[in-house]
Amino acid sequence: MKSLFRNAVSFITHSRSINPNPTPVVVSLLPLTSIAAAPSPSPSLLRRTELKTLRPLSSPLRRYSMAGGEFPASASLEKQFEDFRVQLEETGSLRERIRAIVMEIESTTRIMHSSLLLVHQSRPLPEVLEKVKAQIDVLKRLYSRLAEVLRECTGEYYRYHGDWKSETQTVVCLLAFMHWLETGSLLMHAEAEEKLGLNSAGFPLDVEDYLIGLCFLSNEMPRYVVNRVLAGDYGCPRKVLTFLTDLHAAFRMLNLRNDFLRKKFDSMKYDLKRVEEVYYDMKIRRLANGDSTENHGTQEGS
Fold first, then answer.
1. Cα–Cα distance, 33 to 191 (Å, whole number)
2. Distances in Å between the alpha carbon of 275 and those of 16, 252, 278?
3. Percentage helix, strand, coil for the chain under 3-state DSSP, each rounded to 5
4. pLDDT in tens for each of the 302 residues of the chain?
């Protein structure tokens, strides 16, 4: 009797180890003889039960794919992101090539700027401009290389415009300052494109870059005026005042948004005010060339 009871307990324990969450079974109080009469499960039956219990459930993705027929969609999704990976790698490689050229442009502009600063130290103008002009051909070659790289963008070069716009604005400022020192007039947009070897059809000079470069030129003028007056050039303030007044009036024709260009244009009026103050001091002291001429004429007439 005890052996039969132990066999029944071991069978129940073995069944629980196979299936830890069995369905509740109502066990009636049968006589022990019925338990003894019940045949013990065969090993093959136990194996089949174990296999059914331990069979892994299918993954949610697999069940979803099989139920909805989504295997083709997952393949197209993988192909799409593979295309994205290739595009991003090509974009990154192209951007690295652009930045390498832009770094050379930046290095060239630093050389030009350091040479052009000698103007504020009353160095001879032809000597200063000769050193700066030697770098214009270097810039032209660099922008030509940049245009060749951007031809691979198939018309989408504006996606990379942020990589060279700051350097281009500085270049326009330096070219415009040189042009004004030589001619006393404004460097036009088409002339700046010609100096850099750019063209409106393929790789143009961005209009905003040109305008911001002119604003940078305006920021440079007050310092130049003060240094020229200290060097004895009393006619410079009037010349610069006329130039900045015309430039400021031309900018007022534009309907500028509240962006960086608008902020730079707002700074132009302060440059104009500083030059006006210098010119006003010159007139008070009767040092301006125009005033001395008028005074001499008045004295002769009297």
1. 114
2. 97, 19, 5
3. 75, 0, 25
4. 555 455 554 555 555 554 555 554 444 444 444 444 445 555 555 455 554 554 544 444 444 444 455 455 688 888 899 989 988 888 888 889 999 999 999 999 999 999 999 998 878 889 899 989 999 999 999 999 998 888 877 667 778 888 999 999 999 999 999 999 999 999 999 999 999 999 876 789 999 999 999 999 999 999 999 999 999 999 999 999 999 999 999 999 999 887 899 999 999 999 999 999 999 998 888 877 654 433 333 333 33
Q: Which residue has the tokens 């143009």?
A: 204
Compute the distance between CA of residue 93 and CA of residue 221 in angstroms, rounded to an integer: 40
d(CA 165, CA 140): 16
CA 30/CA 32 separation, integer angstroms: 6
CA atoms 164, 169, 173, 175: torsion sign: positive
Query: Residue 161: which residues within 8 A CB-CB, separation 6 or more?
Result: 206
Rounded CA gap, 198 and 200, in Å?
Answer: 7
